[in-house]
Design a protein that fits this description.
The protein has one domain: Clavaminate synthase-like (Double-stranded beta-helix, 4-Layer Sandwich). It has 305 residues and is α+β, with helices and mostly antiparallel strands. It has seven helices and 17 strands. The strands form four sheets. Strands 1, 2, 3, 4, 5, 7, 15 and 17 form an eight-stranded mixed β-sheet that branches. The chain has a four-stranded antiparallel β-sheet with strand order 6-16-8-14, with helices on one face. Strands 10-9-13 form a three-stranded antiparallel β-sheet, with no helix packed on it. The chain starts with 10 loop residues before the first strand and ends with a strand.
């Protein structure tokens, strides 16, 4: 895995101190300076209305790295032994605004592939807050509830190969750490795979806030081209049709949440977690209660070219 850490000018690359499955990528100030001009060419509205502008941003970012970054990021995400990176912008760099982070996340997404339409927002990305008070119909915004480990895109008919979660802002926050788990590190994975229910089709729906008016059917576990297991699962959206399916989902949920290999990490403002959605699960720990709590996140999910 060491060969993955080939240097790219303007980027500091290392393995995460909690797991060598995760690659840390720090963007240096010199790269931020070089991105200001091409990023200022388009405002966020232009990105929303004119899809080709998103590829222009991606090319600008890749050109600055001498066309090495896109190859490197795809190598990480598609490699079964890694499949995840955390990209961090410089601390206290005033040029890194929310709009800059949206553009940077957009560029990263378009180096990986094509973002899916996000039905919740009606755009190729979604921005949302987590706050003290919440009246939503899913765990996404419930600050004081544990968001259990899951994958994205379980309830849509689009293929969801990868996920980007970027932290735009954070105020008065304690707790709320990110939790991730590589599927191959789940202790009783083989036992789960031996259960024939794991390959049965489940019905997957979604709450009204997702703006998806259909349901899909697919198993929890499938196999990739190399015979390795992939997972598509979230605890809130399956609709088990019998006791066998319900008990299997409970067993899976308990296994994930009790796993000793779960990685708990704090992501600073201005950073993004990017993961392969087929074999990485993600979640969030509860926040400490605070009436002034506020966190804003950006989500982009998509498929490979």
């Amino acid at each position: 895995m060491v060969e993955m850490l080939n240097p790219i000018n303007g980027f500091k690359i290392s393995f995460n101190n909690k797991s060598e499955r995760i690659v840390n990528i720090e963007i240096k100030d010199e790269i931020i300076d070089k991105l200001i001009f091409p990023f200022n060419k388009f405002d966020v509205t232009a990105l929303e209305y004119k899809p080709f502008t998103r590829f222009t941003l991606a090319k600008s970012l890749d050109d600055i790295s001498e066309n090495k970054l896109g190859i490197f990021l795809n190598k990480i995400i598609k490699n079964r032994s890694t499949g995840c990176f955390i990209l961090k912008t410089p601390d206290n760099n005033k040029k890194v605004s929310n709009d800059f982070l949206i553009k940077l996340s957009t560029a990263i997404g378009h180096l990986l592939g094509i973002p899916n339409h996000d039905s919740m927002s009606g755009k190729f990305y979604a921005r949302f807050y987590v706050k003290h008070e919440d009246h939503s119909d899913s765990y996404l915004r419930k600050a004081y509830k544990n968001m259990d480990l899951h994958t994205d895109g379980t309830y849509v008919d689009e293929k969801t190969d990868w996920l980007i979660m970027s932290k735009l802002e954070e105020k008065n926050v304690k707790g709320g750490e990110t939790a991730v788990l590589h599927l191959d590190d789940l202790e009783n994975l083989n036992d789960l795979l031996k259960d024939p229910v794991s390959k049965e089709n489940f019905v997957w729906g979604s709450p009204k806030s997702k703006n998806v008016n259909y349901k899909v059917k697919h198993p929890v576990f499938t196999e990739d081209e190399n015979g390795k297991p992939n997972i598509s699962y979230i605890d809130q959206f399956p609709e088990p049709k019998n006791m066998k399916q319900g008990n299997f989902l409970q067993k899976l949920s308990d296994s994930l949440e009790e796993s000793r290999n779960k990685i708990i990490t704090e992501l600073p403002v201005g950073s993004m977690l990017v993961a392969n959605n087929h074999f990485w699960l993600h979640g969030r720990r509860p926040f400490k209660e605070n009436k002034s709590l506020s966190r804003e996140l950006l989500r982009i999910r998509g498929h490979f070219n």
